[in-house]
Write a structure and sequence with these properties.
Bound molecules: zinc ion
Strand content: 35-45%
Number of strands: 8
Structural class: mainly beta
Number of domains: 2
Distance between the termini: 29 Å
């Protein structure tokens, strides 16, 4: 069965992020001017506005802690109706507390999700050449 959900579009600003995800790796955009991480990636640093941005690999062993979450019982986009409820989380990375990454917690009963729960990044292969960063219970 083909993947029915929207596939994140690669743009000039986020291409390295999604290319890395396809390799099951996390790369983050980093500002060369103020040294802060810029996530989600964009054309300029969200803190200082600098366009001197580089990319830094974080590897494939990514852990974090749930910072906030929403359990969605309604499909808000086509393709999600089969895996409701969907747990949408904001995860604070253990190694880089300033970085928070949004995703879903997979294979987890919604009643078990808690703020502060440790999670680990996983990559869901959605097509032959695309993968999405997601989270599982650590
Ligand atoms: Zn900056």
């Amino acid at each position: 069965m083909s993947y029915q959900k929207p596939i994140p579009l690669k743009t000039q600003d986020n291409q390295p992020y999604w290319d890395a995800a396809d390799r099951h790796e996390l790369v983050l955009q980093k500002c060369e001017t103020c040294n802060s991480y810029n996530h989600p990636p964009g054309p300029a640093c969200s803190k200082c506005g600098s366009t001197e941005l580089s990319w830094e690999s974080q590897g494939s062993d990514i852990t974090g802690t749930i910072y906030s979450y929403v359990v969605s019982y309604r499909p808000f986009l086509p393709g999600f109706q089969d895996d409701l409820p969907t747990i949408i989380v904001v995860v604070q990375l253990d190694n880089l507390k300033e970085v928070k990454i949004i995703g879903n917690v997979l294979a987890c009963p919604p009643e078990e999700v808690k703020i502060g729960m440790p999670v680990k990044m996983t990559w869901q292969d959605i097509t032959e050449d695309r993968a999405l960063p997601q989270w599982i219970q650590a």
